[in-house]
Amino acid sequence: MSKLKVVSLFAGVGGFDLGAESAGFEVIGQVEIDKKCQEILRRQFPDALLHDDVTTAIDWAKENDLIGKVDIVCGGFPCQDVSVAGKRAGIAGARSGLFWDAIQFAQEVKAQTIILENVPGLLSSNEGRDFGVVISAMADAGYSHIEWRVLDSQFFGVPQRRRRVFIVGSSRDLSGAPILIERQSVRGDSSQSNTEGKSLTGAIA
Predict the structure, then answer these.
(1) How distant, in Å, are the alpha carbons of 36, 54, 120, 161, 188 from that of 29?
(2) Which candidate among 140, 178, 184, 194 keeps its CA 20 to 30 Å from the CA of 97?
(3) In 3D, which of 50, 17, 18, 49 has the Cα closest to residue 34?
(4) What is the mean pLDDT of residues 151-179?
(5) Which residue intervals of 67-128 are DSSP H helices?
(6) Are the CB atoms for 49 and 31 separated by under 8 Å?
(7) Would you list the domain boundaries of the chain?
(8) Is the pLDDT of residue 187 over 80?
(9) How confident is the model at residue 174 (pLDDT cuts 50, 70, 90)?
(10) CA–CA gap between residue 81 and residue 93 (Å, rounded)
(11) DSSP E strands: which ranges in 92-158?
């Protein structure tokens, strides 16, 4: 059985990519603008194609014959415009607005699944309307089965509190087969702290 093929956008130093490989997937492409991060990606993922600009990633995908060969597109799009610590320009901002390029890329390469990550502030940006725009845009692009959940890294083996909202959209009918399932407990966490750390979750189908 062939491995699912993944392209990582806003790849950073390859967090999503490591997770994908751990799950048995194959990372075939990465998009990252930061030069230092690119050095790390080249070293850690020498077989993956690397591009530097999400706004031109569709042309890059076409040039490298990736259309129709990508199963999953993932990435944490910039949070500056939706973070509660920023000016909250919202999804229309220059940085967080790169979300639109991610959606267009996934749609263009015909990926069946898109996985996005951002700060929890996305849920309240523009009084919640920006999150509604994100969900609607994903559905309009063909990813009609959508689930989201806020997860905290401290409950997954990382020694720090880092809450992020994860959104998974699929073009397949996954009725009765939820994607974002949280285990009742995680090794090393007390049941009390796990209860206190319960996440916001939602799903539409």
Answers:
(1) 17, 12, 27, 29, 34
(2) 178
(3) 50
(4) 81
(5) 99-109
(6) no
(7) 5-204
(8) no
(9) low
(10) 6
(11) 113-118, 145-152
Q: Does residue 37 carry a catalytic annotation?
A: no
Q: Dihedrals φ, ψ of 90, to 5°?
A: 85, -170
Q: Which amino acid is at 165?
A: V
Cβ neighbours of residue 189 under 8 Å, at least 6 residues apart?
154, 155, 197
Contact 138, 146 (CB under 8 A): yes
pLDDT at 136: 92
Asked if residue 148 lies in contact with residue 123, where contact means CB atoms within 8 angstroms, the answer is: no
The tally of CA atoms less than 13 A away on the side-chain side of residue 71 is 11
User: What does DSSP assign to residue 4?
Assistant: P
Is the torsion defined by CA of 72, 167, 49, 62 positive or negative? Answer: positive
Q: Which of 7, 73, 79, 168 is catalytic?
A: 79
Q: Which one is the CATH code of 5-204: 3.30.565.10, 3.40.50.150, 3.30.413.10, 1.20.120.80?
A: 3.40.50.150
Report pLDDT digits (tens) over 27-64: 999 999 999 999 999 999 999 999 999 999 999 999 99
